[in-house]
Design brief:
This protein has strands at residues 3-10, 13-20, 34-36, 41-44, 61-66, 69-70, 82-84, 90-92, 106-114, 117-120, 124-131, 142-145, 150-153, 159-160, 164-169, 172-173, 181-184, 187-190, 199-207, 210-213, 217-229, 234-237, 242-244, 247-251, 255-260, 270-272, 278-280, 289-297, 300-311. It is mostly beta strands. The strands form seven sheets. Strands 4, 5, 6, 9, 10, 11 and 14 form a seven-stranded mixed beta sheet that branches. Strands 12, 15, 16, 19, 20, 21 and 24 form a seven-stranded mixed beta sheet that branches. Strands 22-29-28-25 form a four-stranded mixed beta sheet, with no helix packed on it. The radius of gyration is 43 Å and the shape is rod-shaped. It holds the Pfam family I-set.
Length: 331
């Protein structure tokens, strides 16, 4: 009878299955032969996966070794969490893994023996997946002006396999298909930021154990002052009233002030109204010049100017008095 040893890597377990080939016993037995070797595995701590290994025929003696030492199973110690199944599979009731003790992690090899010889599998490593709780670097709040780039950065918790990084904004996954958005390593980069990019961002570290969220960080997108209505150049007659308009938008709300390039604003005859309009009353020739609206907030400054020309002569005011009124008619 000829025995072939099949070593399967089931999810989170090593399974060794012995199968006879052919329907009739051969005249001569043969030594075991490994036809499928174990694969490297990464498993979750505390996992207890099912095993589908089953015994079909009689099989040679199977032993497992970890890091060169024979693995103790339930056959030697009924309390062991490692079970050697009748099929030859090495089954873990759970994966034991701690900060100081890692008894299940290592390099495994199986050895199948019968009276004609033995077969040794290739090495296969068993690693335990972990994902720590603490982020090595959490993202920080960022303040930018619209149109500027914004960069947030985090370093995920230590883990194995190394965690991948994604980002959430206001609890929704960030769409990295947006051509303005790049996620590279632990960096989230947004070019040409918009007001709609503002919000609470969370860095997410993920591996097969699960995912961890960082503390949130806020992206604030301010807007520089922008003129909705600008002051215009004006020509006025002496003694007229003149209004220079200045309507601005921005976030934070910009402050507005006026200045005259040629000196001070006319004293007693200038007023800045609630809508930021500069009103000049009873204008004179000496009021001519350039008047500038200056708008400023924490992310920018903008200026817009208008000129004033005053026409003085030869215009004069005349008073007319009605001395008498005569009406003629037929009658």
């Amino acid at each position: 009878m000829e025995f072939h040893i099949t070593l399967d890597a089931l999810p989170f377990v090593f399974a060794l299955i012995c199968v006879t080939l052919g329907s009739r016993p051969r005249l001569e037995d043969a030594p075991p032969r490994i036809v499928e070797h174990p694969s490297d595995l990464i498993v979750s701590k505390g996992s207890r996966p099912p095993s589908t290994a089953r015994r079909r025929v009689a099989q040679p003696t199977v032993e497992w070794y970890k890091d060169g030492e024979r693995v103790e199973t339930d056959r030697e110690d009924p309390r062991s969490h490692r079970m050697l199944l009748p099929s030859g599979s090495l089954f873990f009731l759970r994966i034991v893994h701690g900060r100081r003790s890692k008894p299940d992690e290592g390099v495994y090899v199986c050895v199948a023996r019968n009276y004609l010889g033995e077969a040794v599998s290739r090495n296969a490593s068993l690693e335990v997946a972990i994902l720590r709780d603490d982020f090595r670097q959490t993202p920080s709040d960022v303040v930018v002006a619209a149109g500027e780039p914004a960069v947030m950065e985090c370093i995920p918790p230590r883990g194995h396999p190394e965690p991948t990084i994604s980002w959430k904004r206001n609890n929704m996954r960030v769409n990295d298909k947006d051509e303005r958005i790049t996620i590279r390593g632990g960096k989230l980069m947004i070019s040409n930021t918009r007001k709609s990019d503002a919000g609470m961002y969370v860095c997410v570290g993920t591996n097969m154990v699960g995912e961890k969220d960082s503390d949130p960080a806020e992206l604030v997108v301010f807007e520089r002052p922008m003129f909705l209505r600008r002051p215009l150049n004006q020509v006025a007659l002496a003694e007229d009233t003149v209004d220079f308009l200045c309507e601005v938008h921005g976030d934070p709300t910009p402050t507005v002030r006026w200045r005259r390039e040629e000196g001070e604003l006319p004293r007693g005859r200038s007023e800045i109204r609630n809508d930021n309009t500069l009103r000049l009353t009873q204008v004179r020739a000496e009021d001519e010049g350039t008047y500038t609206c200056v708008s400023e907030n924490s992310v920018g400054k903008a200026e817009a100017s208008g000129t004033l020309q005053v026409r003085v002569g030869p215009f004069r005011k005349y008073s007319f008095h009605l001395l008498s009124l005569h009406v003629w008619g037929e009658g």
